[in-house]
């Protein structure tokens, strides 16, 4: 068990090996829970937000057929084409 020292400012220092093992860097947040037998420390992990504009063009699908147009997905235009005899 590791013993921590509280400074005159109320600060504690976690050992470097423990910080590395938990993946904690500068600015990491720790939640303190008071329990009947002492304190419980829990690392608060935030979910990083992703900027979708930076991901544009990362995945490209190969073209297999002729390009599609909006009319291919419009039920009214499909009905109109079938009535005119077009496929």
Alpha-beta content class = alpha+beta
Oligomer: single chain
Unreliable stretches: none
List the strand order in the largest sheet.
Answer: 1-2
| Number of distinct beta strands | 2
CATH architecture of one domain: Ribbon
Shape: rod-shaped
Name of the top-level CATH class of one domain = Mainly Beta
Number of helices: 2
* CATH fold node name of one domain: Pemi-like Protein 1, Chain: D
Order of helices and strands: HEEH
What number is the mean pLDDT? 82
Polypeptide structure, described:
- The chain has 87 residues and is α+β, with helices and mostly antiparallel strands.
- It has a domain at 1-46: Pemi-like Protein 1, Chain: D.
- It has helices at residues 16-22, 75-84, and strands spanning 29-35, 38-44.
- A two-stranded antiparallel ribbon has the order 1-2.
- The longest helix has 10 residues, at 75-84.
- The N and C termini lie far apart (76 Å).
In short:
This protein is 20% helix and 16% strand. By secondary structure, it is an alpha+beta fold.
Summary tags:
87 residues; alpha+beta; Pemi-like Protein 1, Chain: D; two-stranded antiparallel ribbon; 2 strands
Helix and strand arrangement:
Layout: H1 16-22, E1 29-35, E2 38-44, H2 75-84
Antiparallel strand pairs: 1-2
């Amino acid at each position: 068990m590791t013993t921590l020292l509280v400074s005159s400012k109320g600060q504690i220092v976690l050992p470097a090996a423990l910080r590395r093992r938990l993946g904690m860097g500068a600015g990491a947040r720790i939640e303190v829970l008071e329990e009947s037998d002492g304190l419980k420390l829990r690392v608060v992990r935030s979910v990083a937000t992703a900027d979708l504009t930076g991901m544009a063009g990362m995945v490209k699908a190969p073209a297999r057929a002729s390009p599609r147009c909006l009319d291919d997905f419009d039920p009214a235009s499909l009905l109109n084409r079938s009535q005119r005899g077009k496929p």
